[in-house]
Amino acid sequence: MNASEFRRRGKEMVDYMANYMEGIEGRQVYPDVEPGYLRPLIPAAAPQEPDTFEDIINDVEKIIMPGAASPACTELETVMMDWLGKMLELPKAFLNEKAGEGGGVIQGSASEATLVALLAARTKVIHRLQAASPELTQAAIMEKLVAYSSDQAHSSVERAGLIGGVKLKAIPSDGNFAMRASALQEALERDKAAGLIPFFFADSFNFNPHKWLLVNFDCSAMWVKKRTDLTGAFRLDPTYLKHSHQDSGLITDYRHWQIPLGRRFRSLKMWFVFRMYGVKGLQAYIRKHVQLSHEFESLVRQDPRFEICVEVILGLVCFRLKGSNKVNEALLQRINSAKKIHLVPCHLRDKFVLRFAICSRTVESAHVQRAWEHIKELAADVLRAERE
To answer: Quick check: helix, strand or coil at residue 205?
Structure first.
């Protein structure tokens, strides 16, 4: 969608909302549709080719509005998470189809998803141990719980451990900065021998469509193999939140899958993106970014002053000037002060590293080439200043 069409469609959406507000008294307060109405009206998987904007808007009125905001808000999220899970080829255990035990939910961020998973795992092990030994107190169990993450994990994982009140141990990564199963196994055996209780294992998967899948913030996709692990940790049913369908088995009550009770209709933007681009369009978008990241990698490797710090796999290139951390910090400061491009650094072991991320929807090869020329010029200035 170019800028001209975006303006036109934006005006159409304003008209749609204005018409809705003008006619709102003619609409029912409570929908006629029953739980489960939506899934049969929507294909079981995302379209391979793009749909037209007109078709999507027509479906909003025909499929979504009869159940807005409930049960459409919930049911579209369940279907969209299944669509996305299939696009990623996740194991079927993570999907909500055919009365399975798993399913997906949209969290606000990966930080939230990590915390929710940790709290659910903590509650599950406490219940299991207390069922076997009723004399055990929650405090006695909590002080022995231990979770693990890679030493390269995001700080949000450590933060989840702090909030959850559990020990979190970093597992050393290998030469490629990947956590090895053997290192984790050693830590597990060592901690079990010391009387600790490992509890945080891989029954969930999370990533952010708002990072690289063209869905606006916030939209963090989380899947679990057993949804009762979440509902068992977060379910509360005060009178003012009860409804007639909650024990019917026909609905997914997402307030039991997350920390907040309230939630927005976030699946609607997924529905629009998946249909506007189609699976093939999204694949082409990601593949283009990966190609551009390798183009930048090639430019870096051709300059003997620079080095690539880790294998380039997706859209991120970790690189630095050969030399001290100080000279790389100076380079980053010049890059970001010039305000033509913006880079965010990291540390890999003891090295200060610059990160070049391909993430804009409109980025082209010309932008990558221009950014590299800019970096080279500033690098020359930094090295000249260091010699002086």
So the answer is: strand
